[in-house]
Every structure is written in C-alpha cells, then in structure tokens.
Amino acid sequence: LLDKKVNTRFHEGPLCFSSDGKYVYFTRSNLARGKQRKDNQGIQNLKLFRATIDEEGNWNNEEELPFNSKDYSAGHPSISNDGKDLYFVSNMPGGFGGADLYKAAINSDGTFGKAENLGSAFNTEGQEMFPWFNGKGDLFFSSNGHIGLGGLDVFVMETTEGAELQNVGMPVNSQSD
Q: Quick check: 61 and 118 in contact, CB under 8 A?
C-alpha cells in the first residue's frame, strides 16, 4: 500500500516508475492546500507530478511538472524504454480535440523539454488516453477517435520501420470501453 501522503481523499491516477527506480511519475487531481481547484467551467483538471524514491521506498520531493495548468488536464504518464521521453495525455490548447498524446524530453539534469503533440498519426478529435510501452518499445494507448469496435479501444504503434497504427482487436477490445 502507498502511504497517505500519496493516497489522498481525492483522485490519484495512473503512474509509472523510471527504469532505475529513482522516480515515480503520477496523476493527481488539481488541489490547492488539500482542496479541489476547478477551472472557469467548474471542471477539476488533472495534473502530473514527480517524486523521488529513497532506498526504503518512500516518496520524497514531490513536485508538479511544468506541463500543468488549472485550465486543462495533464496526466497518464509513461516513460519511453530508453528513459529519455515522458509521454502523457492532455487537453491543452492547440491539440486535435479531446485528450491528445504528447511527449517531452527528460533532460539529463531532470528538467523537461517542451511538450510535443504526437500528431495526427495518433491523435483525433476524440480522446486518446493511457499511453504505455511494452518491452519492445511499442506504444499502446486507448482511443475512441480511431475506427474501432466501440468505446475506448486499445491501439498499438510498433517500433518497426513503416509500421502503421493497429487496433489490437478482440478479445481485448469490445463494444464497450
């Protein structure tokens, strides 16, 4: 179980760990002094955080990532297999619509590069969510904007040259999310 410092009474969502086990990246509701913060439309957006992990497994030095805003969500972190890029979803201005997939370089000093939208090969006017990499480095994510069986379907973009986006099909996907 994670301690109460991480598990609050609000939403903590998808997380990932750096391959060296020194960092955890996670999603949390937008809070200020323990209270929900909402945007001008009354929506409580999500934010990305990073914490260091000590030898005992404690999470320390929790910090917000620079992609956060009270006006839009950023969440669902995933780190590329080489550890050089952070992938996440956001509905920040300038996207294709809904939540889009983004990536940002993780610099050697721990700072981040600019968030880059992954473009129309991945993103649609719908929702793209939950990026994840398998051991080969193939990028999996869910979308309700690409042609699928219904709801949020799981798609994969393999790392092989010339690969095209594929719906992973049944039995993983169905008419529901």
A: no
Q: Residue 40, CB half-sphere, CA atoms under 13 Å: how many?
A: 2
Residue with tokens 């994969």: 156
Tokens 């598990």, located at residue = 7
* φ and ψ of 152, to 5 deg: -80, 115
Integer Rg of the chain from CA: 16
Q: d(Cα 136, Cα 78) in Å, to the nearest integer?
A: 14
% of the chain with per-residue pLDDT over 90:
68
Q: pLDDT of 110-166, one tens digit each?
A: 999 999 999 999 999 999 999 999 999 999 999 999 999 988 999 999 988 889 999
Neighbours of 81 (CB within 10 A): 15
Q: b vs e for 82-113, b when ≥16 Cβ sit within 10 Å of the residue's Cβ?
A: eeebbbbbbbbeebbebbbbbbbebeeeeebe
